[in-house]
Design goal:
The structure holds 2 protein chains of 2 kinds. Chain A has 2 domains: about 5-105 and about 210-245, Periplasmic binding protein-like II (D-Maltodextrin-Binding Protein, domain 2); about 105-210, Periplasmic binding protein-like II (D-Maltodextrin-Binding Protein, domain 2), CATH 3.40.190.10. Chain A is built from 11 helices and 10 strands. Chain A has helices spanning about 5-25, 35-50, 60-70, 85-90, 140-150, 155-160, 170-175, 190, 195, 225-235, 240-245; strands spanning about 25-30, 55-60, 75-80, 100-105, 105-110, 130-135, 165, 185, 200-205, 215-220. By secondary structure, chain B is mainly alpha-helical. Chain B has a domain at about 20-170: MetI-like fold (Orthogonal Bundle). The model of chain B has no long low-confidence stretch (mean pLDDT about 90). Classes of the chains: A alpha/beta, B mainly alpha. The interface between A and B is medium-sized, with 24 and 23 residues.
Chain lengths: ~260, ~220
Amino acid sequence: MSCRLFKFLLLPIILALTTLPASAGSITIAAAADLKFAMDNITATFRKAHPDDSVKVIYGSSGKFYTQIRQGAPFDLFFSADIGYPKKLARAGLTASTPRAYALGRIVLWSAEVDASKLSLEDLVKPSFDRIAVANPQHAPYGERAVEALKSSGVWNQVKGKLVYGENIGQTAQFVRTGNARIGIIALSLALNPAFASRGGYATIPTRLYKPLIQGFVITRHAADNPLAKTFAKFIDSASAQAIFKHYGFARIPAGTAP
Amino acid sequence: MLSAADLGALWLTLKLATTVTLLLFMLGTPVAWWLARSRSRWRHPVSALVALPLVLPPTVLGFYLLVAFGPHGPIGVLTQSLGIGLLSFTFPGLVIASMLYSMPFVIQPLRNAFEAIGERPLEVAATLRAGPLDRFFSVALPLSRRGFVTAGVLGFAHTVGEFGVVLMIGGNIPQSTRVVSVQIFDHVEALQYGQAHALAGGLMVFSFLVLLAVYGSQPRLRSF
């Protein structure tokens, strides 16, 4: 290859390719499955203000992400359905910020086959509800709260044999959406989405029946030197991000409960 | 080391794999025989259909089964009208899903074995006045027994190793759909690495011994 060709043709291309990522930031967010619609909306709003940056979101169960981050997964921010997991990461020295609460989650009874808006947990003992979908309480906070609510409403012993477990709250909603489970306990944020809200109906489960679901996020140690991660964290406190959370049924954290 | 739940998952997996392998022998043998012997123009489309689960991601199978098993899906409508409810989240549902998933691993070796017999032994049997059924049971079956061993082992092992489809239509119910692969996944998710190791390690040793036994008993069999 002639030296001139390299200087005038290839060099600029190589320079352009290697310098491009440096000018634009990039973050990967691990988000609890209940955030699916809210976070899609929030990142879309964020991208409008930061058109050159790349923001990727992966949805799944909070417990799974916790395990993956402990094993060195390359996530920059972790939005958990329960602030307990980010706190555990902080104690293990795997974070670059203090875990912060961003919203309060709620659980609802939802069916795509019948109108569940008039139903309560006591109705789940009826034989017509032969399968009840909940998220796996072992690693999905929404599943944990669903089991708590069933226990404190006194129907646990009658319904525990009818439970089917979704890997995360998104899969749980799919079990109900396809009718394979006639009813289920899912996140209010999912039940409010038009794709789900157009069918059946939902009833909110009284908050006194389960521990408050304080949802928290944290910047991971992986993003310690990533300025875009800090920018995004700041954006979560902005009025527009908070309005989106509210739109999807998340309540603000009452003063005093925030850590 | 293994808890009662782990043993339950192991037992369920063995039950599932055995049921699926036996059912696939019964339904797959005629199909394999037809594929090996027929000159019909439907031979190629059916071959392609049988091989489909080899190339499809388990999520494709899982998604379509979830929809088909549902109250408005074709299978769900049928099972409800028969009064047996929905098949999703049940052991019979898992059997059907696993049969589809493991089908090529049973039918393909059988078909190869039947093709390897050739026409000659069957023609000779026919001249000795053996009827079609007699020819199959007295000539074809003994000559293709290696194919049956291979098909059985592969069908069984592949069902034990099933994960994606079960995760999508199983619903993780102890004693009916929580098989070993799902149980290991749950242990890992819940950071119970000790229990995950016990099950995963046990499965590795078991699978190795099964394959070793098969290779050892068939010296001329080089590969599947």
